[in-house]
What does this fold into?
Amino acid sequence: MYEWTDERLEALSTPELKNLLGNAERKSADDLAAKCKAVLETRNALKPNRIAKPRTELKEFEHTVADQIAAVGKEMAAKYDLSEETAKAHSSGVKGFRVHKLLDSKGSAKLGGMQRDGSVAIDRYISYRRGNDIVALGVFLLKDAPLDSHEFHVIAPAAFLSDPKPIAEIRPTATEKQKQSAETGLAFKDLAPAAAAFDAALARITA
It folds into this structure.
């Protein structure tokens, strides 16, 4: 009879071990089954795969719109020089200058501070900075508000916007601690006009 030593079991791949375990259990070879389980447990192979929870309607909407905003960002990056190198070159001498990455690490819109601290349901945005000026485009939804009440915000210095509104009017719930990237902005119900306003602001900041 073949002897399954610990060394021989360790030499098996995880699929082979699982197959051997199944055979041992069918043949009521309890000692061998116990040995197989012990080796598999050390490999964490017996833990059931975690099944991702389906996204809520809110999360599905957030991710969809964040990707749409990112698509606008990629289109703008092809139209203007939004590289980090150019931003740094045009910002020399600005104390504490920090480059704004246009998108997040996954190529989507970044997570805003007001969503990060839980004060709003959605705050996703893309942004570009040169010198002390920042231009941003984002989607914004207040906490517990219906999805269709979301807005697209373009936040930028007043000189870069047409008929700018005070940021306190655009985001009245923002506190002093939730400092916004500029003092003025514009709010839109649809992405297309917001993207056009963002485009115009980028044309001015990159001029």
The chain has eight helices and six strands. Residues 57-205 form one domain.
